[in-house]
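As agreed, record copied across for absentees:
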Amino acid sequence: MITIDDLLEDAALPVTPDTSFDVGAMLRRLAADAHRRPDNGGEVGSTAQAGHRLSTVCRWMINAPGAAHHIGELAWNLFDEAGEDVLLPRERITESIHATDGQFERTNYIRDHMTMEKGKAFLAYRGGYMITTDPGKIAENASLRMRRINTELASCPGP
C-alpha cells in the first residue's frame, strides 16, 4: 500500500548546492568596492550602492533552491536556543534569521523534516511559534487546524 509519505518522498526534488556562484567572494568584492570608491557629492554614495548590491545578492541566495532548507535550519537553531515550549513571535524569528515573512512561511522543512528527526512538533500556537513534545498543546493545535479546515469546507459552494 502506498502512503502519502511515500508519494511526498518520491515527489521531493533533490537539493544540490550550486557551486557556480561564490557568495563569500561576492561579499568581499562588494565590501572592497565600498571602501575604495569616494562619495560623489549629491549622488548616491558608494556605501549605499554596495549595501543595495549586498541586499540584492542576499535576496538571490535566500530565494535560491535549497534556501528553505537553510532558513529552516537557522530557525530551528533559534528554537533550540530558546528551548522547548517557548513561544517565539514571528517578528523575532524573521528578524533573527534575516528572512521575510514569505520566506519563513516557505520553510516547511522545519515542520516536515527536522521535527520528525528530533521527535518534536513545530506549532503555530497562540500568535507565535514553538517546538514542543507536550501532547496537550499538539492536540489543541491540531483541533484548531481541523476547525479551520471544516470552516473552509463549509463555506465552499456545493455541486
